[in-house]
């Protein structure tokens, strides 16, 4: 039974290994640490946002505001730095505080108003995107010594690949996510609420605090993804990162987390992100394929995973029936 | 009242909802080291009383005293902290978490500020060992049977609360062996000095474990007695407030006149790994009672006859013509009906009204193109609400708001509307109160007298005796034998089940 719960995760690993093998077979250069380094850098903001999304989905919720919050924080930071001369680190702190509070407010609305997360975060999405437009409609470039310095920071990996600061930050966020999910009470509460909110409440799980915490965490990580995206692009633009929340949801599901909540691993989401990155890299290497193939393959994978999970659930039910009569 | 050795007691409790008096001046107490059965028909106020004791509802009047101190129970968590733990019929644990996490969520042992899974699993194993349960505590709870989940819930409640344990219909989904396991755990906890409140519909179980019995009726206390001083008949009349007529009238019914041709015949009908091939011929006006332990193939037989599962051997004939029952739809076309065991999951559609639920099968049989008008549906529903005495304020009321017994009648009405020739009832009286129980049995007898052929599956032997013209005994997925006429008695049925069990061992 334990194995069947982890089956989607193992399926993710197998698909990752297969995809990687196909890539390396076609383009042997893809096996280099340079490619790996770039993949991590290019997907850092998505990966960080996806960790937050993993907690949200594990709890049985959804957060549609992620892309808009990333864009909003990006615009906020660029305005603070370029127009008001605020030091980037101070701007980051302000942006993170705002995005965390925004997430917490959505969590509170979801819990206390008993409105589905889908609706609340949809409203949050419009709100954050709209606020980004109110601040600035054009793309605002950031020219700051701190940015150039940070962008040059990297660790050289064997084989010449560069693990950039933001790539490393994503890995750190995943590591922290794994610790929170599996080694803290908060993590067990997230799984508990995803399993059955009512039972969790009867068992003494602080549902209000945890729900607010989950969306605050997702808001914080969206803000952090905004910081990373700002470092990555050296600009803030209110039309950026449209639909990133959907990429994040896709990464979570391809990573083996059940959309209905309660079952899944943060580590799975990492591979979900990397698989998407791998497909993009393949398309870049190929050079002739349209980048929309990424969407097509992700769509097929998503469908396959949802079907796989459904089959496992059905098989589990049948198993339970057999046990009962045995 | 005024018992000095009471662990938990409630004095003069009243509670009403929107003018409806759910509890009126009720006294109740649990002593240290006793199993106290709380009985009453549905709506008697059992669950309201439990909810008051556990802080789900605040009483309008009255006091709750715990260990000699008056307490004000704020919510279930507060009750838990005060020492009152509750385990419900539907296990309220988290199926996706491991057994150990379910036992210790929110109080996991910590090391270096992080939860310490190794220590938690060791604690869980040690805790369950007290109940002689040896399972993989790291596996998700959902991978274990309901009985084990129930015991995990009890272990958790006792570990967290440790003085009063309330078991709300814990045996409803357990088989006989599992019930025994639960009882041995309850006895062990009684020896440890816990006070246990046990709510159940099964009188056998009350007499098997309870020390004292409290009966509620219509929100009032009927009385609290020692089990030893309360004969079964008296208990039943305390619960009903009247003497039992229909149910006590034991003994077999006369089989239909000899020579009535069987309407429906199954010969060597079976499905491997489900039910061994069986022969069964059912004549109009006959009630075949199916007796056997849970898992003996009773429900499987019904599923096969109704085409939910497909037989891989044998043949079926209706009026001498060979038929193939390949789907429930086909079975309905042949004039069969099935009231399934799990009424909530497979039978009623809770959000639809009484009218819609009754019209459902007839509409399906007619085909969707010939839609029944609302007026036609209403007439149909009105007719059956009267005929079966379905107690509802309105035929537009959602079925989920009706009591269990009335829901069962709605399902019966649905099938009767199709004018079936064979009706299969799987546990028609499960989870419904004693009064409705008797009505359902009377209804079965009436339908049979009207010439319907019935197959009724039940775990309650006395009930089977009350309506069957013939009793089919099942064991280990095989049809063992038929009992007819004078052979139908509790003793014979029990002996047949038991003897064949022995022979099979």
Can you give a write-up of this model?
- The complex is a heterodimer of chains A (326) and B (505).
- By secondary structure, chain A is mostly helical.
- In chain A, 76% of the residues lie in helices and 3% in strands.
- Chain A has 14 helices and four strands.
- Chain A has helices at residues 2-26, 33-42, 44-58, 66-83, 88-112, 117-135, 145-151, 165-183, 185-195, 197-202, 207-233, 244-254, 266-286, 292-325, and strands at 140-141, 154-156, 162-164, 235-236.
- A two-stranded antiparallel sheet of chain A has the order 1-4. A two-stranded antiparallel ribbon of chain A has the order 2-3.
- In chain A, a hairpin with a 5-residue loop joins strand 2 (154-156) and strand 3 (162-164).
- In chain A, helix 12 (244-254) packs across helix 13 (266-286).
- Chain B has 505 residues and is of the alpha/beta class.
- Chain B is built from 17 helices and 22 strands.
- Chain B has helices spanning 46-53, 76-82, 99-104, 117-129, 146-160, 176-191, 203-209, 232-240, 298-305, 328-333, 343-347, 354-366, 374-387, 404-416, 434-449, 461-467, 490-504; strands spanning 6-17, 20-31, 34-39, 61-66, 69-71, 84-87, 110-111, 114-115, 164-168, 195-199, 212-217, 220-226, 264-271, 275-282, 287-291, 313-318, 321-323, 336-339, 422-426, 453-457, 470-475, 478-484.
- In chain B, the strands form five sheets. Chain B has a six-stranded mixed β-sheet, with helices on both faces. A six-stranded mixed β-sheet of chain B has the order 18-19-20-15-21-22, with helices on both faces.
- In chain B, a hairpin with a 2-residue loop joins strand 7 (110-111) and strand 8 (114-115).
- Mean pLDDT of chain B is 81; it is low at 243-252 and 500-505.
- Chain A binds chain B through residues 1-2, 5, 179, 182-185, 187-189, 191-192, 194-196, 198-200, 202-206, 262-263, 316, 319-320, 323-326, and chain B through 76-77, 80, 92-97, 101-102, 105-106, 108, 114-115, 117, 138-140, 142-146, 156, 295.
């Amino acid at each position: 039974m334990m194995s069947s719960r982890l089956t989607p995760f193992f399926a993710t690993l197998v698909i990752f290994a297969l995809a990687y093998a196909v890539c390396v077979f076609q383009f042997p250069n893809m096996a280099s640490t340079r490619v790996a380094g770039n993949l991590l850098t290019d997907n850092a903001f998505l990966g960080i946002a996806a960790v937050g999304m993993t907690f949200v989905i594990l709890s049985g919720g959804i957060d549609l505001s992620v892309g808009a919050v990333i864009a909003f924080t990006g615009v906020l930071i660029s305005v603070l730095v370029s127009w008001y001369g605020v030091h980037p680190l101070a701007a980051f702190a302000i942006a993170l505080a705002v995005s965390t509070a925004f997430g917490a407010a959505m969590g509170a609305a979801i819990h206390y108003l008993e409105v589905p997360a889908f609706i609340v975060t949809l409203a949050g999405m419009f709100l954050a995107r709209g606020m980004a437009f109110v601040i600035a409609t054009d793309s605002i470039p950031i020219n700051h010594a701190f940015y150039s310095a940070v962008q040059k920071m990297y660790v050289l990996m064997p084989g010449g690949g560069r693990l950039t600061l933001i790539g490393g930050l994503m890995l750190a966020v995943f590591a922290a996510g794994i610790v929170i999910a599996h080694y803290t009470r908060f993590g067990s509460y997230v799984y508990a609420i995803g399993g059955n909110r009512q039972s969790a409440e009867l068992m003494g799980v602080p549902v209000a605090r945890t729900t607010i915490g989950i969306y605050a965490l997702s808001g914080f990580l969206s803000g952090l993804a905004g910081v990373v995206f700002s470092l990555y692009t050296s600009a803030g633009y209110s039309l950026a990162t449209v639909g990133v929340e959907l990429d994040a949801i896709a990464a979570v599901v391809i990573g083996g987390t059940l959309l209905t909540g309660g079952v899944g691993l943060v580590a799975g989401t990492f591979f979900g992100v990397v698989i998407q990155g791998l497909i993009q890299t393949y398309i870049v290497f190929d050079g002739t394929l349209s980048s929309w193939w990424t969407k097509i393959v992700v769509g097929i994978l998503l469908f396959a995973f949802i079907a796989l999970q459904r089959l496992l659930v059905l098989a589990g039910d049948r198993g339970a029936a057999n046990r009962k009569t045995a | 009242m005024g018992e000095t050795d009471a662990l938990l007691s409630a004095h003069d409790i009243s509670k009403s909802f929107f003018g409806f008096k759910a509890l009126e001046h009720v006294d109740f107490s649990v002593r240290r080291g006793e199993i106290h059965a709380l009985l009453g028909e549905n709506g008697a106020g059992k669950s309201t009383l439990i909810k008051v004791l556990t802080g789900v509802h605040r009483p309008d009047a009255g006091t709750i005293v715990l260990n000699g101190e008056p307490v004000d129970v704020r919510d279930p968590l507060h009750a838990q902290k005060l020492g009152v733990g509750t385990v419900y019929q539907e296990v309220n644990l988290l199926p996706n978490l491991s057994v150990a996490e379910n036992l210790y969520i929110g109080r996991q042992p910590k090391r270096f500020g992080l939860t310490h899974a190794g220590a938690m699993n060791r604690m869980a194993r040690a805790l369950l060992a007290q109940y002689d349960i040896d399972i993989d505590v790291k596996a998700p709870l959902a991978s274990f049977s309901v009985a084990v989940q129930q015991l995990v819930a009890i272990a958790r409640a006792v570990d967290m609360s440790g003085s009063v344990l309330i078991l709300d219909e814990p045996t409803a989904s357990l088989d006989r062996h599992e019930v025994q396991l639960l009882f041995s755990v309850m006895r062990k906890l009684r020896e440890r000095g816990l006070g246990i409140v046990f709510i159940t519909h099964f009188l056998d179980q009350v007499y098997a474990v309870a020390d004292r019995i409290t009966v509620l009726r219509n929100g009032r206390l009927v009385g609290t007695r020692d089990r030893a001083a309360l004969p079964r008949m008296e208990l039943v009349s305390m619960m009903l407030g009247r003497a039992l007529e229909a149910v006590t009238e034991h003994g077999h019914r006369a089989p239909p006149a000899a020579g009535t041709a069987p309407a429906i015949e199954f010969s060597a009908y079976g499905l491997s790994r489900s039910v061994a091939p069986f022969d069964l011929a059912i004549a109009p006006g006959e009630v075949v009672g199916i007796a056997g332990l849970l898992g003996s193939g009773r429900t499987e037989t019904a599923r096969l006859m109704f085409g939910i599962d497909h037989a891989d051997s044998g043949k079926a004939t209706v009026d001498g013509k060979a038929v193939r029952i390949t789907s429930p739809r086909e079975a309905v076309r042949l004039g069969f009906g099935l009231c399934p065991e799990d009424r909530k999951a497979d039978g009623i559609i809770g959000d639809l009204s009484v009218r819609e639920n009754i019209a459902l099968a007839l509409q399906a049989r007619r085909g969707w193109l010939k839609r029944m008008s609302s007026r036609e549906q209403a007439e149909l529903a009105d007719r059956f609400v009267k005929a079966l005495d379905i107690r509802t304020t309105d035929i537009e009321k959602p079925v989920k708001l009706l009591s269990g017994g009335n829901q069962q009648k709605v399902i019966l009405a649905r099938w009767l509307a199709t004018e079936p020739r064979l009706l299969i009832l799987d546990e028609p009286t499960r989870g419904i109160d004693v009064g409705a129980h008797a009505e359902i049995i009377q209804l079965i007898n009436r339908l049979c007298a009207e010439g319907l052929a019935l197959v009724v599956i039940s775990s309650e032997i006395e009930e089977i005796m009350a309506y069957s013209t013939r009793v089919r005994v099942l064991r280990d997925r095989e049809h063992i034998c038929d009992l007819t006429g004078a052979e139908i008695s509790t003793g014979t049925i029990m002996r047949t089940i038991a003897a064949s069990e022995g022979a099979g061992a």
